[in-house]
Design brief:
The chain has one helix and no strands. By secondary structure, it is mainly α.
């Protein structure tokens, strides 16, 4: 169970920066 939580945290930490970059790009285009 703990390893699964760590796996989820790792996935979120990988996806989060990309979502921030996408948000910045959307704001930049508008």
């Amino acid at each position: 169970m703990i390893t699964y939580c760590l796996y989820l945290l790792q996935r979120i930490s990988l996806i989060f920066p990309w979502s921030l970059v996408n948000l910045r790009n959307v704001i930049g285009f508008k």
